[in-house]
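Deliverable D4.2, example record:
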Amino acid sequence: MELVKVQPSKSSLVHPLYIPSIATMTSRGIPLDVAAIMSTTLEGILYGFSILMFIGTIWALTYKRRLREVNRLIVAVTVMLLILSTAHMIVDIIRLEDGLMKYRDTFPGGPAAFFADVSQITYVIKNAIYISQTLLGDGVVIYRCYVVWRSARIVILPNILWCCSAFTGFSAVYSVSQATSNAGNIFTKATGQSFFALTLSTNLISSGLLAYRIWKIECNVSALRTSNRTLTPILRVLVDAAILYSVVLFPTLICFVCSNNGQYVMLDMLVPIISIAFYMVLLRVAISKHAQDYVLTTFHRGTTTEQETLPSVKPLRVHISRITQIDDTSTHDMESENPPLTCKVYPIEEQSCAV
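Output generated by the structure prediction step:
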């Protein structure tokens, strides 16, 4: 009986997020097993940093606040981002262990072929988690834009882009999950590129509208402001968050189009970066608010202390005199412009009051 070694078909070798050609001769860049190690390591570092920011965000949202004063929607989104990033990290660790240890010597083609095989359930799950994380992060930016503008018309275009991102993203995941030994799915590659372009456009447009609105408000109230409070720090952190996300997403799109394996590293880094960008905005707003409350509390305490340390003052008695002039025909006050020449002066009436 002749033994035949089965090689993985080209239809099962895909770009991260859906292209069927990663482990083939057309793939470029670092080997897939090396890319898997690098991506998981960098994601773990960023994930640890996002955990610290999550703790700070929860503290900022709940510190010295009653339960009914806590924004439950923002807290729910904060926790959901942590859950998704944690799940993605766990799936990446399991996938790394399977490719480098469990199936290292038994999978046809070795670790590189394993990490490119779309039939692996871990591959489908991690991409579904990434798309969910991306849509949640973009949705939060659109919601912030709506809250600041107070107009549904402003967010029509971002909402349309968001819906298109959801459709293309989950369509691509479904196409990958249904991959067979047939020829490569062209729709999968097209939807993958469309997803990256749509989510990048959604984030840039929503962040731009949000930053412009805050800048406009700052310009309008700057001339009337009586205190040192300003919206510039909040504006700066919003721009920084948008830049941080775009700086990672844009190279990912370039690597995806060029069929470069470096996109593996960029994709896994994006998941915790989405959470970090969300947390940094909330932390900056909360720090600004707590600083204002501290100044007001300190001023109030200082005023109260000064009042308590003032020496006691005895009541003063002030005599108020009133002089009345009466002539033969009428009565005039001393402040009259033309008092009569002939008048009778009566004794001064004294009144006293305590101060």
